[in-house]
Design brief:
By secondary structure, this protein is α/β, with parallel strands linked by helices. The chain folds into 3 domains: about 45 residues, lambda repressor-like DNA-binding domains (434 Repressor (Amino-terminal Domain), Orthogonal Bundle); about 120 residues, Rossmann fold; about 130 residues, Rossmann fold (3-Layer(aba) Sandwich). About 45% of the residues lie in helices and about 15% in strands. It has 12 helices and 12 strands. The strands form 3 sheets. It has a 6-stranded parallel β-sheet with strand order 2-1-3-4-5-11, sandwiched between helices. The longest helix is centred in the N-terminal third of the chain and has 16 residues. The N and C termini lie far apart (about 65 Å).
């Protein structure tokens, strides 16, 4: 049975107000009475009523974070750094996974609001004015990362468009003139929030169109591997496969090896994200690294600053670096 402050007051022969002052280290009681109350509370295993305290203070010291899933190492790593920063500042985290389900995402956000979280960080799958109006009605600070909402909501990520442009320049500097760009999420354009794939795609197109004597193909098929095989076989010169994510690049490396297409002798491959599993890949994959830990830490830090009433930037860009390995 849960021990109450009323029971402690009865045992100690004092008022509930006196117990409250002792438990919350407030003045107005003697050291002897405080010590007696604290000793009884400890012996009985007393724990304060968290929700009742939250109502009085107007905050719960909790945050919500909404991710697609944690199968992708980017998201699991981001969550760890987000949670570590929040915990350092005295906040507890509710983690929910939308699984890229728009209705489930809204249901989970409502659940977080029902639990009176002080703020929410999310990588949204929903978008548009109706969804943003729903978020505004929550009356709690909202911050996004990865997929962006409109400029009205603070956003923490990298400059995806510029990063892909630099990737194209890097590949061209290695002598490639034929590109195969792989981004299956683009097939969902207009159906859901795919801000990150769209920005990377825009950057790729802008980079290619700014160059002369460049040939390129964009693959958005769900079953992209057979299309890649056909394009590699038809290419007049050695092509470079640029992927919008390391996950696709790893799949392609395995597929090419199965079909005895050597990397980089027959085709070059480059990914994006620098997930930690790349440490075990052969040949080592050229990719773009960005500081996921910094994104998680800054997201928590800025969200908490916003909760405390401080103005925060509407866009925070984290740096990135091309990691040149043996796959080009």
């Amino acid at each position: 049975m849960k021990v109450t402050s009323k029971q402690i007051a009865e045992i100690c022969g004092v008022t509930r107000g006196t117990v409250d002052r002792a438990l919350n280290n407030r003045p107005g009681i003697s050291a002897e009475t405080r010590q007696k109350i604290m000793k009884v509370a400890e012996e009985l295993g007393y724990r304060p009523h968290f929700l009742a305290q939250s109502l009085v203070k107007g905050e719960t010291k909790t945050l919500g974070i909404v991710l697609f899933d944690i199968h992708n190492r980017i998201f699991s790593q981001l969550f760890h750094s987000f949670e570590a920063e929040a915990r350092k500042q005295g906040y507890f985290i509710y983690l929910v996974l939308s699984n890229k389900d728009k209705e489930l995402e809204i249901e989970y956000i409502n659940s977080l609001l029902d639990r009176k979280v002080d703020g929410i960080a999310l990588s949204p799958i929903n978008k548009g004015t109706k969804f943003e109006s729903f978020l505004n009605r929550s009356n709690v600070p909202i911050l996004s990362f990865g997929n962006r909402l409109s400029a009205r909501f603070p956003f923490v990520w990298i400059d995806d468009k510029q990063a892909i442009k630099e990737a194209v320049s890097h590949i061209v500097s290695r002598g490639y003139r034929t590109f195969i760009y792989v981004s299956p999420p683009l097939r969902n354009k207009g159906k859901e929030n795919i801000y990150v794939p769209e920005q990377r795609h825009k950057g790729f197109l802008e980079a290619c169109k700014a160059l002369t004597d460049i040939r390129y193909h964009v693959i958005t098929d769900r079953d992209y591997l057979m299309t890649i095989k056909r394009l590699v076989n038809e290419a007049e010169d050695k092509p470079a496969i640029l992927c919008s994510s390391d996950i696709y690049a790893l799949d392609i490396l395995r597929f090419l090896k199965t079909h005895k297409i050597r990397v980089p002798e027959h085709v070059g491959v480059m990914g994006f994200d620098n997930i930690d599993i790349l440490n075990y890949v052969n040949p080592p994959l050229t990719t773009i690294d960005f500081n996921v830990d910094e994104i998680g830490r800054r997201s928590a830090e800025l969200l908490i600053e916003n909760i405390k009433g401080k103005d925060i930037p509407l866009r925070t860009n984290v740096g990135y670096t091309i990691i040149d390995r043996d796959s080009l």
